[in-house]
Amino acid sequence: MTKLLLSLHVLAAILAVGPISVAASMFPRKARELLASGAGGVAAGQVSPGGAAGAALLHRVCRAYAVFGVAVPVFGVATGAQLGVLTDAWLLVSVVLTALAAVLLGAVVLPRQARLLGAAGVGLDEGEAVPQIPDPRAAAARLAMVTGIFNLLWAAVVVLMILRPGSTTSA
Question: Could you give the CA distance from residue 87 to residue 100 in angstroms, rounded to a whole number?
Fold first, then answer.
């Protein structure tokens, strides 16, 4: 049972976190391209449909895989319980880092992506106000930084999962 749970945990991590990391990392550049023409360009319809569709797709990938990503800690806790390591420091640190990454994704990355899309007029309902972003380039750069932190948190979790400090299987 432990091998099955560990396999599901690793597969969920690869299949959920990987696409989020890639799509979230690509989004700021796509958003900068989308907003490059400025508010006047957006209003005048100068934004390429492919750019808008690409940015919207990256945002949808992040949202959808974030929901699927809940399986990662679920299988991780089940695996940890089977192995009897739920109170080990390396696992507790991994849980905290995973929680920080989840909060960062849900409270910062996804809302900022949505706001940048809205500023470009993408995904707004009829008559909905376009959010004003004073400096879209700076907003996209800040989003890229936050996304980088999200990715670094996951990299730290992977390192902890492999090294398992204090384990007899550590390198």
Answer: 19
List all residues 6 or more positions away from 142 whose beta carbon is below 8 Å from its beta carbon: 112
**Residues 43, 49, 55, 57: is their CA dihedral positive or negative?**
positive
55 Cβ neighbours under 8 A, 6+ residues apart: 27, 30, 31, 34, 116, 117, 120, 122
CA distance 140 to 150: 15
Question: What amino acid is encoded at 158 in this protein?
Answer: V
Q: How many CB atoms lie within 10 A of CB 157?
A: 22
Q: How far apart are CA 119 and CA 131, in angstroms?
A: 5
What is the model's pTM? Answer: 0.85
Residue 5's contacts (CB-CB under 8 Å, 6 or more residues apart) are 75, 78, 79, 82
Measure the CA–CA gap between 111 and 141, rounded to whole angstroms: 15
- State the 10-residue block means of pLDDT for the chain, 171 residues long: 93 96 96 71 49 91 96 95 92 96 97 91 75 88 97 96 70 49
Instruction: Quote the pLDDT of residue 167.
Output: 61
Residue 3: exposure state from Cβ atoms within 10 A (0-12, 13-18, ≥19): exposed
